[in-house]
Amino acid sequence: PILILGACGQIGTELTVELRKKYGSECVIASDIREGNNDLVKSGPFELLDATSYGAIEDVVMHYEIDEVYLMAAMLSATAEKFPMRAWNLNMGSLFNILNLAREGKLSKVFWPSSIAVFGPNTPKEDTPQNTIMEPSTVYGISKQAGERWCEYYFKKFGVDVRSVRYPGLISWKTMPGGGTTDYAVEIYHEALKNGNYQCFLNEETKLPMMYMDDAIRATISLMESPAENLTIRSSYNLGSMSFTPSEVAKSIQKHIPDFSISYAPDFRQQIADSWPSSIDDTLARKDWGWQPNFNLDQTTVEMLENLKRD
Ligand code: VAH
């Protein structure tokens, strides 16, 4: 059976739905600190669970005989700047809980998400390589860089089968994201349909690596199902699909909503975005486990507008 921590979050929600479709609802236990999403609670086993509590996680792991954990609970970049110590404790405490359970032989496989936030202001911005300068300047990025080091350490030292990808900004319609710097790329679609305009908290030429959620979920499951011997990276794989600026998203939306207008009012999140790459070299993910994105910006826009209209 599989346990998902942070199952009610932006990635966790869609990961739970997909894994339940694939393996059957009873085999996928969703958990979160609160019952954020009652569809998940109704469609299969759900546990209220604090990802920073080792004992609580161990109880659930033993009770359901869990063998795989997806740790999707975390505090994202913007919120983490406001509460650095809470972010560090949640992001690292939860990771140590899962790595130690695996080290004790209670789990056979672990997924842990990293992020393009591991890169910093002096990292090469275009086609950012898998191995390069990494001096993250955000609390969140520092926690992801430290997390990657610990994942590789537990793999090499204790043989823990932990796998990870550096997600770009993710665009989804099923749940609102919480506290991210790339969240503008989700909010803009909601606002376009609701008000016909959007005030963007990043400036118009901020180019960031982005991905549609269906691609991110497929990448996650594909990595987890790959034979261990194919994997040459045990910190975290670069993962790319597209890069765009807020003005490019606006143009893509205007193909469907011609009167849509965007304005720009950069806030503290501009500095966070400026420290991140513009595009990612994910050659290794393509080579080691056949990664291939499916959605470009215009296809993402169609998906977002179609599904949000219906919602
Ligand atoms: C954030 N969505 O904005 C997350 C992600 C690369 C961005 O880490 O913090």
TrEMBL record:
Q: Which Pfam family is an annotated match for this chain, by its short name?
A: Epimerase
Q: Which GO biological process entries does UniProt record here?
A: L-threonine catabolic process
User: Can you name one GO molecular function term for this protein?
Assistant: L-threonine 3-dehydrogenase activity
Occurrences of domain NAD-dependent epimerase/dehydratase (ranges): 2-240
Coiled-coil stretches are: none
Origin organism lineage? Bacteria, Pseudomonadati, Bacteroidota, Flavobacteriia, Flavobacteriales
- Name the domain of life this protein comes from: Bacteria
* Protein's name according to its UniProt entry: NAD-dependent epimerase/dehydratase family protein
Name the family.
Belongs to the NAD(P)-dependent epimerase/dehydratase family.
